[in-house]
Each structure stands twice: as structure tokens, then as C-alpha cells.
Design a protein that fits this description.
By secondary structure, the chain is mainly alpha-helical. 56% of the residues lie in helices and 5% in strands.
Length: 351
């Protein structure tokens, strides 16, 4: 499997993981996952499986009619007999619960909304295929979402972040010891994220062969496996060339020879590793902002929109399938641009 592209390896791993999860659910759930397979990614199906697992655990723990059954014994008939009230109780249960390791789990608005959305899709599938006659999930009202402020780095914070990666002056002594070994790599990763807006999963999935310096582009695989080329500027090119020069002196572990970004263990970097290095540097530069790789993506999108004013270009570069998603994220900037244009059209000559 190691000779397969990274995105294909991850997809195979996800399919195996999904099969294990399905074995923990009622048998009829397998039909649902087969039905949605053609139009969903393996990551999406895993998210559905986790959400459904929580739902059936709720029924087993909290529903007096089903509490004497194991999760595997719950049937479609039981599902059909549930009412809107049962599902509203589930929504209440999601706010605060204990997981199977007896750890406290608190779901906020978005977490609850996602799990209810998964349940609606689940019910809709069986109702549409006439396996159940009632669909109580369709009557459940989604929780109200309070809009969150979009967190991004300001222009001066971007410069400070890259300076900190280069110099490491504010790191602890322990961090400085690692910094000497990783600063060229770290600078290449952060410059790439800030200079292209790619997702962290797309970043760690890059192979050396995916970088095309002649045309200034990188080949990435978007959600759903779509292959696209994302173009980069001079600063990204310079950072990547410096890293690749250093990378030539590293002997990767078997199976990781093609990976662009390597860990200190000489293996392909993981998403978690990149998240941790972003957090490490960002906490120094802007301790009050919770900066993640996705926030660097938002930062790039903001800067690109300010420079071009083209929301469709931003949507295309970021890989948003629906431009309304992009508009939602950059609505405040659109309002700012509209305000700045209020005197652009003159009705009469000024004396």
C-alpha cells in the first residue's frame, strides 16, 4: 500500500475504519452506508458513523423501551416508533454527556447541529426508500446557531509569525533545540499555508513530484479526490527551494520516500504535527487568538479578496464548491468594499 498516493492510502484506511464502526451499529445501518457511498467521501461516512453510534448509545441508555436491548438488537421498527419528543430529548442529551471512557463531553451549537443533521440524513434515506413509514427527524427543528467571529491573522501578525519561525527568539530552551533542526521545514510549511490557502490535509499529502517550479504550482487532491493545481508566488517558491535543498540530505523511512514534508522521525508529517507547530508559533505572536491551520487558510482568503475583490476567484482558489460558502465567510469584507465605494460614482461635477 505504501506505493499508492497518500490520498488513496488515507481512503483505504478510512474504509477499514468505517467497516469496524459499522460492526458496532445495528445491522440495517450497513444499507445506509452503501446507499450514500457514491456521493460522499470516506471521511464524511466516518463522521456519520460516529454520530450514529452516539445516537444508538443514547437510545440504549435513556430510552426505557430500548434499554434492555443491545445496540445491535435495535431494529428499523424501533426507529420508526420514535417520536419527535424522543429526538428532542436526544438533542438535550448531546449538550452534556459521558462517553464510553466515562469522560465528560460537552457539545456546543455546531456539534449538536452536525449530529442532528446526520440523524436527519439517516432517517431521510430509509423514508425515501420506503423502509419506514414515518420520519420524525424531519419535524425536529435545528438548534439556532450564533454566528462566530472569523478569526484570522492581520498583515503585521503574518510577518511576525514568519519572523518567529525563522528566528525562534521567543521559544523555550527545549523548543529552541528542536527549532534548529526544523526551522527551514517549518518556514516552508507556514509560508505554503499562508501563501496558497490549501488545507492542512492537502499540505501533508504533498509528494515531491507534486511541486512544479517551472509553472509555480502544486498538485493537490481536494475533498472527494478531485485533482487540481494551486499556484504559488515567489515567497513560497523561495521557502520550498530552501527546504528541498535541506531535504536532499535526509534519508526517509521506507514507504515515505515520496513525501514532501518529513517529521524528525523521517516519516510523512501528520495533520496533528502541523496543527501543533502552527499552535506553537502562533501562541507567541498572538496569544489571544486561537490560530489553527484553518485560520491560516482564512487569512489567505481574506488577503486574496482584499487584493482582487473577486469572490468567485477566492471560492475557486480555496476549493469551495458553493460560492455562497465563501460569501458567508467574507461577508464583512464585502460590506467594507461596498462602503468604500459609496463615493465612487459622481452625479454632478464638483466645483
Amino acid at each position: 500500500m505504501s506505493n499508492l498516493p497518500y490520498y488513496e492510502q488515507k481512503d483505504i484506511e478510512n474504509v477499514k475504519k468505517l467497516r469496524d464502526l459499522i460492526r458496532e451499529l445495528p445491522p440495517f445501518c450497513a444499507e445506509f452506508f452503501r446507499g450514500i457511498e457514491p456521493r460522499t467521501s470516506s471521511r464524511t461516512r466516518i463522521a456519520y458513523a460516529y454520530d450514529l453510534k452516539i445516537f444508538f448509545e443514547f437510545l440504549q441508555k435513556e430510552n426505557p423501551v430500548l434499554s434492555h436491548l443491545s445496540v445491535r438488537e435495535i431494529s428499523l421498527d424501533h426507529l420508526e416508533q420514535l417520536t419527535v419528543t424522543d429526538l428532542e430529548e436526544y438533542m438535550e442529551y448531546l449538550k452534556y454527556r459521558f462517553n464510553e471512557k466515562n469522560q465528560e463531553v460537552v457539545n456546543k451549537e455546531r456539534g449538536i447541529m452536525r449530529k442532528i443533521s446526520s440523524l436527519k440524513s439517516f432517517y431521510n434515506y430509509f423514508f425515501r426508500n420506503e423502509k419506514i413509514r414515518t420520519n420524525p427527524a424531519a419535524l425536529v427543528r435545528m438548534p439556532k446557531l450564533h454566528e462566530k467571529e472569523i478569526i484570522r491573522l492581520d498583515i503585521d501578525e503574518v510577518a511576525e509569525l514568519l519572523d518567529e519561525v525563522e528566528q525562534g527568539n521567543s521559544l523555550t530552551d527545549k523548543q529552541k533545540a528542536f527549532h534548529e533542526k526544523t526551522k527551514v521545514r517549518d518556514l516552508a510549511i507556514l509560508t505554503l499555508l499562508l501563501g496558497t490557502g490549501i488545507r492542512v490535509s492537502e499540505c501533508v499529502g504533498l509528494d515531491i513530484a507534486d511541486v512544479d517550479f517551472k509553472n509555480g504550482g502544486i498538485r493537490i487532491h481536494r475533498k472527494g479526490g478531485k485533482e487540481v493545481t494551486v499556484y504559488f508566488g515567489d515567497e513560497v517558491e523561495e521557502a520550498l527551494l530552501s527546504y528541498l535543498e535541506e531535504r536532499e540530505g535526509v534519508q526517509p523511512e521506507s514507504g515515505h520516500e515520496e513525501a514532501l514534508f518529513l517529521s524528525l522521525q523521517r516519516k510523512r508529517m501528520s495533520v496533528r504535527s502541523v496543527e501543533n507547530l502552527v499552535k506553537k508559533y502562533a501562541k507567541i505572536v498572538t496569544p489571544l487568538k486561537k490560530i489553527t491551520p484553518h485560520k491560516l487558510r482564512s487569512t489567505y482568503g481574506t488577503n486574496l479578496y482584499r487584493e482582487t475583490g473577486d469572490i468567485y476567484l477566492v471560492a475557486d482558489v480555496l476549493g469551495h464548491s458553493d460560492v455562497n460558502t465563501t460569501k458567508k465567510h467574507y461577508a464583512a469584507l464585502e460590506d467594507e468594499r461596498r462602503r468604500s465605494a459609496r463615493n465612487a460614482v459622481r452625479l454632478r461635477e464638483q466645483e
